[in-house]
Amino acid sequence: MRVNGMKTNQVIEVALKAGEILLTGGAEIYRVEDTVTRICGSYNVRAECFVLPTGIFITVIDSEGNPVSIIRRIRKRTVNLEQVEKVNSFSRSLKDRTLSYQEAMAGLKDIAALDGYGYVLKLIVAGIAPFVYALLFRGTVLEACVSFLIGIVIYAIKEKITQAGVFEFFEYFASGVAAGALSTLAIKLFPFMDLYRIIIASIIILLPGLAITNAMKDALYGDIVSSMFRLTEAVFVAAAVGVGVAIALSVGLRWI
Amino acid sequence: MVEIFLAFLGSICPGVIYNVEKRNLMWVGFGGMLGWITYRTFNEITKSLVLASFLGAVIVGIYSESVARLLKAPATIFSVPGIIPLVPGIAAYSTIQHVAENQLYEAASKGIETMSGAGAIAFGILLASAVFRLTKKLKKRGPNPS
């Protein structure tokens, strides 16, 4: 019955850890539920699993026939697609070769420790993205360079506020204000540039692409509650950025 | 040609921000590139933002699902950065600008344009995933159950 001498509660622990990494990394709900059930299944444990964007609920029946249930509250939601992919292949590999509890937990800890690309590289990329988009919207090279600088500043502000953890969505509002204010400033310095291009290009990294995609995928798999959650998240992010830019523009264009 | 290369870069950058692995980044870029080519072509022909965004997103969705199967990675990795070039940025900006200048009727009209563009992208992705899921189900039910 038992595989590799894993106790039922250890199996749940491994499954829960995998689910947690997936959910905080930005995976869709069905993928989390699927992974948890599959991990339990590869240790011959039948599990029922229910996942919301804010928590994971697992119940299994242990060898004596008693139900064991664990709830894990998820508060952190980041985007780390590398972790999603790694856990995905980890759970698939368990089907061919089951690991012991220590091995599995060590593997998952390694995945959880991955924090992707370095801060400096991301900062530079956060500048390159607006640079590229300014050109893609048929802007001049000078506009692209201004967007490059604004993009870097916005990303730095967003990361700092996220780390400080003020409120959810506040970082988007602040970044929007910064984008609006800096672009207006740039226009005042170089009046021959187009304001709209610089603003659109520089807020491109703030777009809630993951939230929209996941909202649709969740809806497709019937996870309507999570779909609503993601959709609202996307609307809030877009509104926060938009209002931030609007405030900065109405002040900047009228009084300065 | 330059534009196509820019669209390629334009999906890789969000990919880095979202921590897509290095070996998948190139595939992310191709997805965004294909989506942008589709979007631009149909935008020129039909002059319809909604139709062009929808078709672009369908292409990104189909591409992501197929590459995901080839590389054995989740499709999200490719579709999330891939749709970024399609986002109706100019319409969204006009909405905000009209709001800031207190022209609320224009803001409403541009706002609806933005939302339709975003909705078209979302449903394009949805359609592509739905088709792939359907084929998977049909295969499972296939004529020769093993």
From TrEMBL, chain A:
Signal peptide segment: none
A cellular-component GO term for this protein: plasma membrane
Stretches that traverse the bilayer: 141-157, 169-189, 195-213, 234-255
GO molecular function annotations of the record: transmembrane transporter activity
GO annotation, biological process: succinate transport
Topology relative to the membrane: Multi-pass membrane protein
Pfam family name, one: ThrE
Highest taxon above the source species: Bacteria
UniProtKB keywords: Cell membrane, Membrane, Transmembrane, Transmembrane helix
Domain Threonine/serine exporter-like N-terminal intervals: 14-251
Keyword Cell membrane belongs to the record: yes
Compartments in which it is found: Cell membrane
Annotated family: Belongs to the ThrE exporter (TC 2.A.79) family.
PANTHER family referenced in this protein's UniProt entry, alphabetically: SUCCINATE TRANSPORTER SUBUNIT YJJP-RELATED (PTHR34390:SF2), UPF0442 PROTEIN YJJB-RELATED (PTHR34390)
Name of the protein in its database record: Uncharacterized membrane protein YjjP (DUF1212 family)
From TrEMBL, chain B:
Tagged with keyword Membrane: yes
One example of a Gene Ontology biological process annotation: succinate transport
Entry membrane topology: Multi-pass membrane protein
Transmembrane domains' residue ranges: 48-64, 76-96, 116-134
Entries under Pfam families matching the protein: ThrE_2 (PF12821)
Keyword vocabulary terms for this entry: Cell inner membrane, Cell membrane, Membrane, Transmembrane, Transmembrane helix
Domain Threonine/Serine exporter ThrE as annotated: residue spans: 4-130
Subcellular location: Cell membrane
Main location class: membrane
GO terms for cellular component: plasma membrane
InterPro entries xrefs: ThrE_2, ThrE_Dicarb/AminoAcid_Exp
Family: Belongs to the ThrE exporter (TC 2.A.79) family.
Protein name: Threonine/Serine exporter ThrE domain-containing protein
